[in-house]
Amino acid sequence: MAFFMRRPFALTSALRQVPKSTTTARFIHNSPFKPAQTKPQPSSILAKSRQTFQNAFKRTYMQPAYSAQQGGNLTQRLAYGAAIIGGTILATNMIFNRETREDGGMAPYERSYLNDTFMHTGLGVGIIGIAARALHMNGWSFRLMAASPWAVLGLGLVGSIGTMFGTFYTPPENYVMKYGMWTAFNVTQAALLAPMMFFHPAILARAGLYTVGLMGSIAFVGATAKQEKYMYLGAPLLAGVTIVALSGLAPMVLPATAARTLMWSERIWLYGGLAVFGGFTLYDVQKILHHARLSERGIVRRDVVNESISLELDFINIFTRMVQILAMRSNNRR
């Protein structure tokens, strides 16, 4: 049930790009823009959606490339990103990890289990990125954004939850079916996240760097803390993710005139979501180590593919929010 509640957030990020209402433009545009010259309205609904999307695309994404003076050189950017990652690791370790493990550190079996899970998480994120890029280049993003948001929401939930539970309930001994369902799950996420490729590559790269730094520092804390120290976070995080989910779906049901309510719902979805899924990363790492100890004693099966899905969902939800925050700040500076 927790996974069912966590899934709509990455989907909401894609649906916010759909140009079928003026509310969606609020998530992309943060400054007034001059309206383009009016053209005759198309007759069919599909043609009208296509024309609206084309106008929004011309206003939003056809931006000039960043100049070297504005963005700085590559060395400065890398140093800035490294400082952020290092500072985040140091700060989270000092604040949340004052009491480390007293059993001599992580056991070899736990370390192997955790490393294999991280490896599958990285492979899954890589599959999502490559597949999203390929779908975007083939015009899938345009067709997805021109479709009905409720249809995308329904089909996205069915595809995501179906492939996810198909992966969960496939035994690890059946390698072909297991990895087939896992690949289908990753491709489904790529299909839903493909419209994010409209953002500037620099924004996507920075968001990916910040996401890796944030999750890496939190995972380090979870791996070196006392056993099951943060396992109690499950219930509070489930309550928090419910609030974030409702705030993410608010623009689809609230009128555009409720500007203040929509503004606060957006902030809860963005910054509250970062806090909630950062907590989920901490919880999931400790849960993976707990499953590793159970697997070592033969109580449960060793299944790192299932474990990696939890971290993939955390990565997707944090990454989408990072992209949106960076895009909003970039628009405000112009």
UniProtKB/TrEMBL annotation:
The chain crosses the membrane at residues 78-97, 117-135, 147-169, 203-223, 230-256, 268-285. Its main location: membrane. It is a multi-pass membrane protein. It is found in: Membrane. It comes from the Eukaryota. PANTHER family: BAX INHIBITOR-RELATED, GROWTH HORMONE-INDUCIBLE TRANSMEMBRANE PROTEIN. Belongs to the BI1 family. This is Bax inhibitor family protein.
